[in-house]
Hints:
Helix content: 25-40%
Strand order of the largest sheet: 2-1-6-3-4-5
Shape: globular
Structural class: alpha+beta
Number of domains: 3
Radius of gyration: 22 Å
Strand content: 5-15%
CATH topology of the largest domain: Aldehyde Ferredoxin Oxidoreductase,  A, domain 1
CATH superfamily of the largest domain: Aldehyde ferredoxin oxidoreductase, N-terminal domain
CATH architecture of the largest domain: 4-Layer Sandwich
Largest sheet: 6 strands, mixed
Number of helices: 23
Amino acid sequence: MYGWRGTILRIDLTKNEITKQPLDETIVRKFIGGRGLNSKTLFDEVKPGIDPLDPENVLCLAPGPLSGTPLRLTSRLEVSTLSPYSGILGDGNAGGSFATFLKWAGYDQIVITGRASSSKYLWIDNENIELKDASDLWGKTTWETTDILQKRHGKQISVAGIGQAGENLVRFASTIVDKYASAARGSGAVWGSKNLKSIAVRGTDKVKLAQPDEFKQLAREDMKFFLKDRMQHKAIAVYGTHIGMMYWHPGYRNFKKYSDVHEIPDDLMPDGWKKYEIGRTGCYGCPVKCKDVYRIPDGRRCGEIGSALEFECIDCLGTNCGIIDPIAIMEMENLADKYGMCVIGLGNTIAFTKELYERGIITKEDTGGQSLDWNDADAQIELIHRIAQRDGFGNPVAEGLYNLTKIIGKGAIDYCYHVKGLSRGPHPPGLFALAHATSTRGADHLRGRSWAYGENDPDLFPLLVKTGLLPPQMSQNPVEGLTISERATTLADSIGRCKGGVNSWACAVPLVWKYPLWNGLAKLLSAATGMDFDDTRLVEAADRIYTLERAFNVRQGITKKHDRLPQKLDVKGTRQGKA
């Protein structure tokens, strides 16, 4: 096959069996790959009603048909499963090198079932596949595991896997790729439940293209447009998603309000943060390099280097937990990467417990003496260690935000900000209200955006239209806007491309009115695969994937009544202040 490699790798951990299955061309015509292929696999193979930590649950990893090609911004890996965090579809998308190397090794998808009798890791060296003993890796951080496997198998590999949080079945544990990229929604706990520590891959066989000359020309035109016109290259390349601190008001103390820019310390703002930055990096082959590389300048982790400290981390582990110390936030980000935990799930669950503590719903008697004061960074760092190890009060907190309300009771649900069991990010629901409510994986800033500012920010729409970031015809139609945005993000996840590469402003405002999005992607897919794609077929594929995901969730008990925001969270997204 062209574009695709034509092979699915199936791993039955219970039987210790590895099989190679031909990729069904009729399926990828309809579902493309990546997220679409994974969602189809889960719908076909996950039995309704099973526990997400049961061996029968299925774990899928898939790049897209454009991953590993000369098109930039395509080293994106989709990791999908029945989520132990939310109990519904749980997929995450990570960068790094894994998607590219997996395609070069010859595979379009890895499907993992069963449970190993002892800890294992999977070694993929082109056509040679082995399940190997991981007893020396179990109990290690993701950073330690990656270093060990690179020393064992060579530097030119990519590693995806879990830290101690996944081993201990923390429900918001993530799949970590190449130390710093994270696929969230609880997939890490599924790795742990299967006794699978990591997957290391080396691939050296480049992807074959149906029309290589035409594809390369289209890729050059695509990148020329991107570098000329996209906010990612002009701002994200300099600041990363940290730029969100300037135009999104960070949450404060479990979303009691959103902070104005002047309330945020300079060191947490994009320019102030630059003093800690020692470089920039990005996913394989990416010219943008949206991720910062920083060195902790002081304290117990002085000199430790980290990367990809996003806006979501500064908010969820920082301001929303009452912490404004940049050194503490850097340490907590590194801990989340090492242990393998989603910073949104981790931070929002901690913020939730802090509000319950403040209100007297839980006390030090409940926490085993653990302090939950808002501004106590040392206590929060201690709690992060306990969560990853499921030690003391960290054990119930490791169950995640929504599950914790059932454990605590006492009206705790009133302060739990989630949709379909998934904690929401720090992004103002004025922009995300409809998207959060209807997303197929719960409260989510990466499924789509509805631009429903309306009464909250009447000056924003004219500004976006004036600056060319929003087409006039969408400024008053959030439903139409959400539909286009959902299609764009679905296609990005399915073709294997960074969302920043298909629409501007980190997928906030798709430029379909300005950039031939569907037609441009259709031409690229056609030249890569040799199949005839057009804009109509792509839109149909996106709608088909999204509908299938909703159908999967219906089998898990989701109904229309779940398509709503938390009761105490109005469209302004806060109990006071701006959204």
